[in-house]
Specification:
Aspartate Aminotransferase, domain 1, seven-stranded mixed sheet, five-stranded mixed sheet, 12 strands
């Protein structure tokens, strides 16, 4: 049976993979080399210089393509490097429509790096996909979507946005970091590009920085491969190996992330001191019906606000946590807590942050795979 016909849980282990041709190694070796011997100028075995391609990175890129049901995967030095490559498809004067609730580093890349090169960005609420069309004109070349969004867990209808993109001949890119292909496969819903901060759930162990793109159009893939090679923001073989290893347990980890996420979300929603919990699995969560349709579960990312909380109150809670670690990032086996206003979203001006709900009292949780009772006890003692 070819890997294309495998179910998802099998694809994470076997998708796009084959034993190493040299000695039959089951896991791709770490090809820690910068260059490759040639028997005549241009006469090589498919690899000539590791910025252009490396066997370990290629194995990872094949796995990425498989689990996202794409045809071409590209691995980068970070998620932001992957995003950088996508924006380099554009030219001065082009316009991008992006959600207004997105990772602070994405906002910083758009506003502080690419805007000065003449690319125009519009940040809008995308919960009602039909309102996106108001911001599309003949200069629009890209729609950038996060769903669920970071950190408000807003749900955007990928299929509906895809129809808009097709109608206006605009590329649609989806940041699938929070959901992972275990829960959501944007290419199947009409997206042109899927992006991951593979640092998070795909790697899964908080030990590597890496980014990924997956597409299913060969022309687009070749454009991105050119940018990847010409700009050189590639990941090394050791990092590639670590993420490839992480992908092999993605399905079992995500199952536990989802189970624990549900338990923590329900606990917080019933806590007398909690004002609001943001988690797509609640029936009263905005666009829950869309999440139910385009996702296979609701994940382990949760944000919440305590009643009457201030900036200082939120800081005190995250500082008291003991099982949850106060740290940047998400998606590892260990549970993490963060304060978006001062951490992941500090690069977004306060006025802009608060328009999308990222207030000073907001706390974001990345629920890991520990015992759920230990996590609940930790939150209980921290919240009081």
């Amino acid at each position: 049976m070819g890997s294309k016909n495998l179910k998802f849980n099998s694809k994470t282990i076997h998708g796009g993979q084959q034993p190493d041709k040299a000695y039959g190694a089951v896991m791709p070796p770490i090809y820690q080399t910068s260059t490759y011997a040639q028997n005549t100028p241009g006469g090589h075995k498919g690899f000539e210089y590791s910025r252009s391609a490396n066997p370990t990175r290629t194995a990872l890129e094949n796995a990425l393509a498989s689990i996202e049901n794409g045809t071409h995967g590209l691995a980068f030095a970070s998620g932001l490097a992957a995003m950088d490559a996508v924006i380099k498809l554009l030219s001065p004067g082009d316009e991008v429509v992006s959600t207004n609730d997105l990772y602070g580093g994405s906002y910083r890349l758009f506003k502080q790096i690419f805007e000065k090169y003449g690319i125009i960005f519009h940040f809008i609420g995308m919960q009602d996909a039909h309102k996106i069309e108001e911001h599309i004109n003949n200069k629009t070349k890209l729609i950038w979507v996060e769903t669920p969004t970071n950190p408000m867990m807003n749900i955007i209808d990928i299929k509906a946005v895809s129809k808009l993109a097709v109608r206006h001949n605009v590329l649609l890119a989806v940041d699938n970091t929070f959901a992972t292909p275990y829960l959501q496969q944007p290419l199947n819903l009409g997206a042109d590009i899927v992006m991951h901060s593979a640092t998070k759930y795909l790697g899964g162990h908080s030990d590597v920085i890496l980014g990924a793109l997956v597409v299913k159009d060969e022309v687009l893939a070749n454009q991105l491969y050119f940018i990847q090679n010409a700009s050189g923001a590639v990941c090394g073989p050791m990092d590639s190996f670590l993420v490839l290893r992480g992908i092999k347990t993605l399905h079992v980890r995500m199952q536990r992330h989802c189970e624990n996420g549900m338990a923590i979300a329900n606990y917080l929603s019933n806590h007398p001191k909690i004002e609001k919990v943001y988690w797509p699995g609640f029936e009263n969560h905005p666009n829950h019906d869309i999440a139910k349709e385009q996702m296979n579960g609701y994940g382990g990312m949760i944000s919440f606000i305590t009643k009457g909380a201030s900036y200082d109150d939120a800081i005190k809670i995250v500082e008291k946590l003991q099982v949850f670690t106060l740290a940047e990032s998400l998606g590892g086996v260990e549970s993490l807590a963060g304060h978006p206003a001062s951490m992941t979203h500090a690069s977004i001006p306060k006025e802009e942050r608060e328009k999308s709900g990222v207030v000073d009292a907001l706390i974001r949780l990345s629920v890991g795979i520990e015992d759920e009772l230990d996590l609940i006890s930790d939150l209980e003692q921290a919240i009081g």
